[in-house]
Amino acid sequence: METPPRPELFDFHGVSMTKYFTDNWDNVKNFKAKADDIVIATYPKSGTTWVCYLLDRLYFGKTHPEKETSLPLYIRVPFLELCIPGHPKGKDLADELTITPRLIKTHLPVQLVPETFWEHNCRVIYVARNPKDVAVSHFHFCRMNSIHPAPGDWDGFLQRFMDGNMAYGPWHEHVDGWWEKKQTYPKLHYIFYEDLTENLGQEIDKLCSFLDLSPSAEEKESIISAVKFDRMKDNKVTNFTNAPLMNLKLSPFMRNGKVGDWKSHFTVAQSEQCDEHYKQKIRNPALQFRTEV
Ligand code: PPS
């Protein structure tokens, strides 16, 4: 399969996007949700795969164990707006799901999410991660994944990240927009990557309470073990082995999985500039990010 060219960024309804996330827009916009669909929404590189797998284990760990060895997570939890030539479209994969609930991943900013999910009052889980680790993770992801523009060098990439010259626009607008939505939409559960790292068991309890699930202590332990970074890195269901357009030799998808890896990339000046930038940009003071745990 030929690798499609690196895409250009362009303005899409006020958000910087690329064609691989917008080419199927009419169909995405007209997607038909079901009331029990669960949406996992994130800015890229914020812990999407982690939470998708956690949900997959919570819902289907007992009933579909055979799938564990076969179907990759990116098929089981379709990426709604993804549209790459020669590959199944995320929207079609979502339509084809026969499981209940359907787990659906998106990176869309809140204002672009198809209305159907709100109309059906679907549960939504938003995962947010501190901007410094997101920037580093995204930098390495763009090196190895040609559905994003080429990252260039780290300094230039960080500047573009802070300027919001990335697919899905500025990080701060994304996390802010979803935070604001949470204030009026009770079926939105907002999670922080740093909290997952610090106390996964407690975060699973909160998630289960939001989802009205009550796994046994044994199930919970088995899920905690299955979603550990090292286990997911070794698991071909979750590590994106054979995923289209990713060159895992350049950088693995399951790369580092830590809070604070930004320290190995940022200079002191970059760190201070970044802190100051987001102090100014984040609208809601209640929305706070930890860059270490
Ligand atoms: S994507 O491509 O936007 O869907 O990427 P996403 O899954 O949101 O984020 C990838 C980063 O999440 C890390 N990750 C984990 N961290 C801790 N524990 C577990 N189990 C886990 N699974 C994925 C992954 O390593 C990426 O972060 P970095 O910092 O690059 O390692």
In short:
This protein has 293 residues and is α/β, with parallel strands linked by helices. The protein has helices at residues 25-29, 48-60, 73-76, 90-96, 115-119, 131-144, 154-163, 171-184, 193-198, 200-211, 217-226, 229-234, 268-281, and strands at 10-12, 15-17, 38-42, 103-106, 123-128, 188-192.
Bound molecules: 3'-phosphate-adenosine-5'-phosphate sulfate
The CATH superfamily bears the name P-loop containing nucleotide triphosphate hydrolases
- Which fold does the CATH topology refer to? Rossmann fold
> So what's the CATH class?
Alpha Beta
Write down the secondary-structure element order: EEHEHHHEHEHHHEHHHHH
**Total DSSP E strands:** 6
Q: How is the largest sheet built, in terms of strand order? A: 4-3-5-6
- Supply the number of structural domains: 1
Could you tell me the strand content as a percent range?
5-15%
CATH architecture: 3-Layer(aba) Sandwich
The chain-level mean pLDDT equals: 96
